[in-house]
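Per your request, structure below.
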C-alpha cells in the first residue's frame, strides 16, 4: 500500500502539471526562463516555499533540532524578515530593470566582467554545493522513510546512489522540457501536499510520543524536563546557532538567500506585475514564520521518542552505533504514519526534492544561456538556440550534481551546518558587492570584481584550510562570515575612491511590467517583522 500510494501521488502531480502547462510556449526566452512574466501571487508564494522547503530543511533542520532544539528555527523564522525586505526594497528594483538573472542586474550596475564572474560562481556553486546537498538529503529521507535498503536489498550507500539517480532523472525532465512554468505549477501542487503532510507528521509524532493516557501538554512537559533548552529560541553557547550568531553570519546568509539568490528569486522575476510579486513574497513570508511547526518541532519530539522507544532509537543508529541526524526525519515518518499515509508523504517529499532540484536546474540554464551562451559563445544566437543551450546546460549540471552528491556529503556529520558553511563561500562576497552597488552610485565594476575575488579567496581559506584559527579567534564560523562581509564592503568603498564611474549610476525602467505596488504591502511587512520579534521574545528562555 505504501509503495502504491507513493507512485500514485507522484504520477498525479506530473499529470496535472502537464495538463495545465500543455500548449503554453516554452520556446521563447521569457516563456522558458520567466514563465512569460505571467505568474500570480499565489503561484509565486507556492513556488518560493517549495523551492526552499525541500529535504535540505526536512532532513537538515529536523536533524538539527533533534540535536540542538528550537534554536535552529532561525533559518526559517528570520527568513520572514528577509522576504519582507525582498518585497519592499529589492523586488521593485529587480522588476524595474526587467532582468532575468542577478548577474544581469550586476551588469547593468557594474559591467560585463562582473556579470561573467558572478554567472560562473552561481553555476559552479549550484552544481557542486546546492544540488548535491538536495539530492543527498532527499535520498537519505526516502531511504529510511520507505525502508529502501530492505526493499531493494542493497546496502545504505548503494541505496543512496540509486535514489539520487532517480531524483536527478525525473527532476531534469521537468526543468529541461517544461521550463519555469512547469516548475512553478508543480511547486504549487507539491506545496499544498507538503503543508498537509508536514502538519500530519507533527500531529502524529506528538500522538505517538503521548501513547495512551497522556495529553499533548504532558508530552511537552516531559520534553522540557529531559532537555530544559529544547524550546529556547536563542540557543546556548556551543550550539551551531545561538543568539550572537543571529546578528552576524546567520543573518547575512539568510538575507542573501532570500533577497539575491538566483535560484530562489527567479520566480519573482516572472511576476505579472509588482503588486502580484509583493503579494506572493509576503504570503511566503507568513508561511516561513510558521515553518518551524513542520521543520523543527518534529525533530524535538523525535528525540523524546528515541529516549523512550528502543526500536526507534535502534533505527537511528549508524554503522558506528551512533545516532545519525540524517535518519531522524525518514525514520520518524516510517514509525508514526500509517502505511497509506507514508506513501502519500513520501510522494510529497519527492515533490519537494524535485521542486528544488528542477528550480535550480532552470536557474542554472537561465544563467548560462543568457549570461554565457548569448553574451560570449554565440551573440547572434536565435531564440531557439538560446533555449536549446539552456536545456543542454540543465542536463550537464544534473549529471555532475548526481555524481557529486554522495561523494561530497556521505559520511558528513551535521550536514545542514556543513551545507551553510559551504554556502558562505560565495554568499558573503556576492552580497557585499550587490549591496554596495545598490547604495553607492559611484563605485565601478573594477572595485566589485576585485572585492568578489578577494572574498572568495578568504572564504575558501576560512572554510577549508584555517584549522582552529576561526574557532579560536572568532568563536563561530558565522562571526567570521560577518567580519569578512564588513571587510569586503569597506574594501570596495576604499577601492571606489579611485575606481569610479564617470557618471553616477541611474537605474533605467525597462517598462516590462506594471510597477504599481500593492497598497497594504508596507503594513503587512511591518506586521510580519513584529511577529518575528514577538516569537523570539516569548520563547527566549523556552
Amino acid at each position: 500500500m505504501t509503495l502504491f500510494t507513493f507512485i500514485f501521488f507522484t504520477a498525479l502531480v506530473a499529470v496535472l502539471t502537464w495538463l495545465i502547462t500543455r500548449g503554453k510556449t516554452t520556446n521563447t526566452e521569457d516563456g522558458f526562463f520567466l514563465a512569460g512574466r505571467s505568474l500570480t501571487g499565489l503561484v509565486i508564494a507556492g513556488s518560493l516555499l517549495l523551492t526552499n522547503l525541500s529535504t535540505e530543511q526536512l532532513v537538515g533542520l529536523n536533524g538539527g533540532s533533534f540535536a540542538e532544539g528550537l534554536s535552529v528555527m532561525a533559518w526559517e523564522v528570520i527568513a520572514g524578515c528577509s522576504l519582507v525586505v525582498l518585497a519592499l526594497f529589492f523586488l521593485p528594483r529587480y522588476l524595474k530593470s526587467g532582468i532575468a538573472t542577478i548577474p544581469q542586474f550586476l551588469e547593468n550596475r557594474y559591467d560585463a566582467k562582473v556579470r561573467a564572474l558572478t554567472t560562473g560562481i552561481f553555476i559552479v556553486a549550484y552544481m557542486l554545493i546546492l544540488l548535491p546537498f538536495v539530492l543527498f538529503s532527499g535520498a537519505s529521507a526516502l531511504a529510511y522513510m520507505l525502508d529502501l535498503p530492505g526493499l531493494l536489498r542493497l546496502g545504505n550507500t548503494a541505496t543512496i546512489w540509486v535514489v539520487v539517480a532517480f531524483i536527478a532523472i525525473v527532476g531534469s525532465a521537468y526543468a529541461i522540457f517544461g521550463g519555469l512554468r512547469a516548475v512553478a505549477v508543480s511547486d504549487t501542487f507539491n506545496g499544498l501536499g507538503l503543508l498537509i503532510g508536514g502538519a500530519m507528521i507533527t500531529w502524529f509524532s506528538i500522538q505517538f510520543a503521548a501513547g495512551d493516557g497522556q495529553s499533548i501538554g504532558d508530552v511537552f512537559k516531559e520534553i522540557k524536563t529531559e532537555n530544559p533548552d529544547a524550546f529556547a529560541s536563542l540557543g546556548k553557547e556551543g550550539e551551531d546557532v545561538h543568539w550572537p550568531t543571529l546578528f552576524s553570519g546567520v543573518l547575512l546568509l539568510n538575507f542573501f538567500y532570500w533577497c539575491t539568490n538566483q535560484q530562489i528569486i527567479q520566480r519573482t522575476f516572472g511576476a505579472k506585475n509588482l503588486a502580484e510579486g509583493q503579494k506572493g513574497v509576503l504570503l511566503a513570508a507568513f508561511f516561513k514564520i510558521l515553518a518551524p511547526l513542520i521543520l523543527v518541532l518534529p525533530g524535538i519530539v523525535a528525540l523524546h521518542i528515541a529516549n523512550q522507544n528502543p526500536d526507534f532509537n535502534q533505527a537511528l543508529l549508524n554503522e558506528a552505533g551512533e545516532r545519525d541526524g540524517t535518519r531522524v526525519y525518514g525514520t520518524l515518518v516510517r514509525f508514526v504514519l500509517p502505511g497509506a499515509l507514508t506513501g502519500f508523504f513520501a510522494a510529497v517529499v519527492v515533490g519537494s526534492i524535485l521542486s528544488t532540484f528542477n528550480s535550480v536546474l532552470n536557474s542554472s540554464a537561465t544563467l548560462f544561456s543568457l549570461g554565457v551562451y548569448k553574451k560570449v559563445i554565440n551573440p547572434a544566437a536565435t531564440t531557439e538556440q538560446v533555449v536549446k543551450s539552456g536545456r543542454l546546460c540543465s542536463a550537464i549540471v544534473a549529471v555532475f550534481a548526481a555524481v557529486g552528491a554522495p561523494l561530497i556529503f556521505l559520511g558528513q556529520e551535521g550536514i545542514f551546518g556543513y551545507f551553510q558553511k559551504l554556502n558562505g563561500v560565495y554568499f558573503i562576497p556576492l552580497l557585499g558587492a550587490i549591496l554596495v552597488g545598490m547604495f553607492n552610485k559611484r563605485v565601478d565594476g573594477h572595485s566589485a570584481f576585485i572585492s568578489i575575488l578577494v572574498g572568495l579567496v578568504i572564504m575558501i581559506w576560512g572554510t577549508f584550510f584555517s584549522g582552529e584559527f576561526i574557532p579560536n579567534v572568532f568563536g563561530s564560523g558565522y562571526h567570521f562570515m560577518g567580519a569578512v562581509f564588513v571587510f569586503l564592503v569597506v574594501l570596495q568603498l576604499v577601492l571606489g575612491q579611485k575606481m569610479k564611474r564617470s557618471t553616477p549610476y541611474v537605474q533605467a525602467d525597462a517598462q516590462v511590467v506594471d510597477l504599481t505596488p500593492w497598497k497594504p504591502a508596507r503594513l503587512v511587512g511591518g506586521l510580519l517583522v513584529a511577529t518575528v520579534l514577538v516569537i523570539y521574545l516569548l520563547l527566549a528562555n523556552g
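Residues 127 and 400 are 7 Å apart (CA to CA).

Regards,
D.
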